Amino acid sequence: xxxxISASPRGPRSESLALAATFLDAVRETDPQLPxxxxxxxxxxLPAFGPDAAAAKMAVFAGEEPSGAAATAWQAxxxxxxxxxxxxxxxxxxxxxxxxxxxxxxxxIDVISQPGLVFGFDPAAGYTGLLRxxxxxxxxxxxxxxxxxxxxxxxxxxxxxxxxxxxxxxVTDISTxxxxxxxxxxxxxxxxxxxxxxxxxxxKLFVA
Length: 208
Known about the structure:
By secondary structure, the chain is an alpha/beta fold. It has a domain at 2-45 and 88-115 and 134-206: Rossmann fold (3-Layer(aba) Sandwich), CATH 3.40.50. The chain is built from 6 helices and 7 strands, in the order βαβααβαβββαβα. It has helices at 15-30, 51-61, 69-85, 103-112, 158-169, 189-206; strands at residues 2-6, 36-40, 89-95, 119-122, 126-129, 135-141, 173-179. Strands 2-1-3-6-7 form a 5-stranded parallel sheet, sandwiched between helices. A two-stranded antiparallel sheet has the order 4-5. α5 (158-169) links the parallel β6 (135-141) and β7 (173-179). The mean pLDDT is 95.
């Protein structure tokens, strides 16, 4: 199954969601039998990760069983992880917010990144990612930042953060599509067409 994880709240005005739609259309054309599920991180189902969840995580780290409110928070986190883990392919659509990712995506990562679920830990060897035999495609968009622009146009903490997390979690098969026009001064149509063509090409390879 392919799970599309959307981090944009902008609906039909979202460039990342438009590119994701292009990607998913190409997936359906290439492999009509592949199940596709959608996870809009803004749909209200993502649990918070607060004091009770943090207490549950540390309890599990210590080999203990969470209890009370911590147990409830742990169940919500594990339910969210199971929804994520049932897929073996992921499409992330990720707009840039303040040089990084939208906070809702960071919240999602914090909720599911739990011991025994996303990672294992050994005091001598360190972390081991537990997400095996999975692939990820990522659509990145930004309206001002671009790798060919100077520091006055921002920095990229978006792609390094998400891809580092995926590799840490065990997902090393990662493909990306970038749409980074300077919308304030440039005609974005050429870059948009290029990004859509790249999304279609990447989608065909993604399900090959």
